TrEMBL record, chains A, B:
This is (S)-2-hydroxy-acid oxidase, subunit D. It comes from Saccharopolyspora erythraea (strain ATCC 11635 / DSM 40517 / JCM 4748 / NBRC 13426 / NCIMB 8594 / NRRL 2338). Keywords: FAD, Flavoprotein, Oxidoreductase. Gene3D superfamilies: 3.30.465.10, 3.30.70.2740, Vanillyl-alcohol Oxidase, Chain A, domain 4 (1.10.45.10). Belongs to the FAD-binding oxidoreductase/transferase type 4 family. It holds the Pfam family FAD_binding_4. GO terms for molecular function: (S)-2-hydroxy-acid oxidase activity; FAD binding. Its cofactor is FAD. It comes from the Bacteria. Its EC number is 1.1.3.15. The gene is glcD. InterPro entries: FAD-bd_oxidored_4_C, FAD-bd_PCMH, FAD-bd_PCMH-like_sf, FAD-bd_PCMH_sub2, FAD-linked_Oxase-like_C, FAD-linked_OxidoTrans_Type4, Oxid_FAD_bind_N, Vanillyl_alc_oxidase_C-sub2.
Length: 460, 460
């Protein structure tokens, strides 16, 4: 259903005609995000450049009952930015200025369209670290990271996006601008709207400015790799590392299928005959890094590792981390459809969860490879299949439903860091219960009485 | 207004008659918390022992429109647990079991009535650290810490209570039990109710179980002290420490008035002729601690410290930290009424804020001493006066209103870690704006349609 001309004209008068797209050919690129199998064409794509323009667009949308789906780079993996009910896709990428980086206050203030990597690089140039590092960091935006509470490879030691958001400027669907938090680590004046908006997936308000905490950049870092007979063995080593009082900056694993795909893809010299690879690493002063890597190596050896190697230099460290970072592209080459999930379980349940995933894959005759953030219990089971094989696609949906149920049964969750979006909304009540789903709906109404913001997602 | 007999009987039938108090003499101890000048006698004090009992009490209260004020140890400093509208004070101290401490999962699960120190000690006995350490830790409860998002002396390096809450069991005012989060660091299934409840000051739900993250206990720690001509000089040193890339575990300051009072009280051998004392410290391996303390000492010297000393041993470190911890009791001895506040500003504004506080105190002819968490910009200006001097009490209120306004003007907040409660509700709109106050009210209604939970506080 096309947008009425008077609405399109009103949008053009707010942001300028060149920043409103309504022609079908122009809409197609905004009908999808990075989530396979989800597709919905919006009626208009709007590119505001200021908080005031966002407020005017939202006020108009509330008045006229037009759905609005906010979007950054569209790298999310849960269809959180697919315009399920049509209406406007509101793209925030023109709001792309780094407004401030302060070394003395250890913070950055940015507009939401700045990419994660650009913020990290700008901080790095000042000797500072922006800790969250989602896999899509070169493309993903800070606004999108906040909206999904993005995680990444450093979650165990450094936490996730939530831990770094100090303040937000956000526009309510009714057009009011609120400023939550600010420049302070400590501020308890009012409910914690900063954290409530973080991870709210564009369903409560549109974020137009973000203040994040930075850390002094660590002096150095180091990485090691351990091979195990089985992923279950690797998972037990993970628990042993944590139990030994170590909180590594990196603790990632790849199953045999991932290692094989990565080696085929990138020829990093990985050993492909082992059942699993565990990547471990830390950062800090040279002494601390060397000490912690040696202890982790010891623990892995005691836990039965087939082989443990420490990267001899930065280049080798980078290569090992690349092995983890390229798991998804490497697997994606194996067939035309790749479905990446992120069920998460308590660390001591990792081995059991991996066994269950393998059993589910076997029963449904699917290729599911698993890699992930072992230190966080955050698994990325990844199904590679032929999208034209309707039977396989159907079996994949069934398999993931079983995987989510298994994660919940083991005390885990349906999504560790990707979000709920449209893709996992059907499983939400199984995780948090119907009372809490009803409560989310009421909270949604407190922000968005006309329910125009990202309908069909969280709070629906 | 006494509680109708049928309500008192209904409460007795839920928790047992011996756990309901309705006689005036029994109510008096629950008419106050640690906040001076706030007093309101409840109609009943109820001591439930289980989540189910809490749910029944709340369901009854919602049905009959009885206000309920949840309370832990009553150590809060913003009248958050004073029953402004009468009704029931719901004391959670019978829910006092440590349910689990897991070294392999780095977490603890406790009931809300467990004291902070008991949790910290139990974690310590397993080689683990519960990082939040509010000043009232020996008496305060974990439930109260979560409800107020308590801070403490380690905020700069370790963050506040919010950063450690993984999951909550909470009872809605309508009696439904919700379980938010869980045992995972990464879990984005739904809005972040865990963080929304943290700091909600008992106005949204009653917390009946808490899962918190623990850390491996640091191997050691060390402390140093620097004296400066003025508090402004000390504040500049704080900014210099941070700008040098250091994030110390401790960075606390005392002004000359505090140092004098502490020395008089505890005879720790502090130098009382300097304008200010800066306490700095770090934890970690011996090498890291020694290196960081040396760098901090250097920075303080470069910033013009009169004298810098590193504690030679643990006993001296403890004595220095005691100097900071006993600031409040030491000041309290100077007169019968002590009003402690916690305005917070961005670190680079600390010196200006302290100057403003001193000017405000002088203008109102008040004794206001200031100490606080310099690393967080979190100031505790403390007014000591005679409660029978009505003129002075009135001037103190005016002075604090001016102090809050100055903090907000400098980009800070009216409360860094104590909370809003009844005491700072009049200043909330000045900090967060009327749109956000209205939004808080709507969120409150989403949880508490009958508005029975802690009325007259946040969300009112």
């Amino acid at each position: 259903m096309a947008l009425p001309k008077k609405d399109a004209d009103a949008l053009a008068s707010i942001v300028g005609a060149e920043h409103v797209r309504v022609e079908p050919g122009e809409l197609a690129p905004y009908a999808r995000d990075a989530t396979p199998l989800f597709h919905a064409e919006p009626d208009a794509v709007v590119f505001p450049a200021t908080t005031a323009e966002v407020a005017e667009v939202l006020e108009l949308a509330t008045e006229r009952g037009i759905p609005v789906t906010p979007r950054g780079a569209g790298t999310n993996l849960c269809a959180a930015t697919v315009a399920e009910r049509g209406g406007i896709v509101l793209v925030l990428t023109r709001l792309n200025r780094i407004l401030e980086i302060s070394r003395e206050e250890l913070l950055a203030r940015v507009e939401p369209g700045v990419t994660t990597a650009r913020l990290a690089d700008a901080a790095g140039a000042r000797g500072l670290l922006y800790a969250p590092d989602p896999g899509s960091r070169t493309a993903s935006t800070v606004g999108g990271n906040v909206a999904t509470c993005a995680g990444g490879l450093r979650g165990l030691k450094y936490g996730v996006t939530r831990n770094y958001v100090l303040g937000l400027t956000a526009v309510l669907p009714t057009g009011e601008v609120v400023r939550t938090g600010g420049r302070l680590w400590k501020d308890v004046a009012g409910y914690d709207l900063t954290r409530l908006l973080t991870g709210s997936e564009g369903t409560l308000a549109v974020i137009t400015e973000v203040t994040v905490a930075l850390l002094p950049a660590p002096a150095g870092s180091g990485t090691g790799v351990a091979y195990f007979d089985s992923l279950a063995d690797a998972c037990r080593a993970v628990t042993a590392v944590i139990s030994a009082g170590l909180v590594p900056a990196t603790l990632e694993f790849l199953d045999q299928k991932c290692v094989a795909a990565v080696e085929e893809f990138a020829a990093l010299g990985l050993r492909t005959d082992a059942g699993a690879l565990l990547l471990f690493g830390d950062d800090g002063t040279d002494d601390v890094v060397a000490g912690n890597l040696a202890r982790m190596a010891e623990v892995c050896t005691s836990a039965g590792a087939l082989e443990v190697t420490l990267a001899e230099d930065v280049a080798r460290s980078e290569a090992l981390l690349a092995a983890r970072r390229c798991s998804l592209p490497a697997l994606s080459r194996l067939n035309s459809l790749t479905i990446l999930e992120d069920a998460t379980v308590p660390r001591p349940k990792l081995a059991e969860m991996v066994d269950r995933i393998d059993a589910i894959a076997a029963r449904h005759e699917l290729m599911i490879a698993t890699f992930g953030h072992a230190g966080d219990g955050n698994l990325h089971p990844t199904c590679v299949l032929d999208p034209d094989d309707a039977g396989a696609v159907d079996r994949a949906h069934k398999a993931f439903a079983e995987i989510f149920a298994a994660a919940v049964e083991l005390g885990g969750t349906i999504t560790g860091e990707h979000g709920v979006g449209a893709a996992k909304l059907p499983y939400l009540a199984d995780r948090i219960g119907p009372e809490q789903v009803a409560l989310l709906r009421r909270i949604k109404s407190a922000f968005d009485p006309a329910r125009i913001l990202n309908p069909g997602k969280l709070g629906s």
